[in-house]
User: Which sequence fits this backbone?
């Protein structure tokens, strides 16, 4: 199960996802392709960075069935919780997050 916390309208809200399916894998691959294009760009502008972060936020909103918007994700995810969101991305790609790696040791 995956969980993220966002601050929305001054309140902390938790969102969880019990399972990931092929749909989420496809969304992760689509975002990965956008990410690769961004990383290959030599002269990144602040607009490129903002677009990349917005693409990631849209991906996360899609993963959680649009229970929150991309803007709510960008404005509500605390930096200390960013690793949890990154783990969700990795899990959608078929990888194991840090918690799963520790449990398998």
Assistant:
């Amino acid at each position: 199960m995956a969980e993220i916390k966002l601050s929305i309208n001054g309140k902390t809200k938790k969102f969880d996802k019990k399972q990931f399916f092929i749909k989420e894998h496809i969304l992760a691959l689509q975002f990965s392709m956008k990410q690769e294009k961004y990383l290959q760009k030599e002269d990144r502008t602040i607009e490129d960075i903002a677009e990349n972060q917005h693409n990631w936020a849209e991906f996360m909103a899609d993963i959680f069935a649009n229970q929150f918007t991309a803007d709510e994700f960008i404005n509500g995810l605390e930096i200390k919780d960013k690793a949890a969101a990154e783990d969700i991305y990795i899990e959608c790609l078929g990888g194991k997050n840090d918690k799963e790696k520790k449990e398998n040791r």
About this structure: The mean pLDDT is 92. Residues 2-103 form one domain.
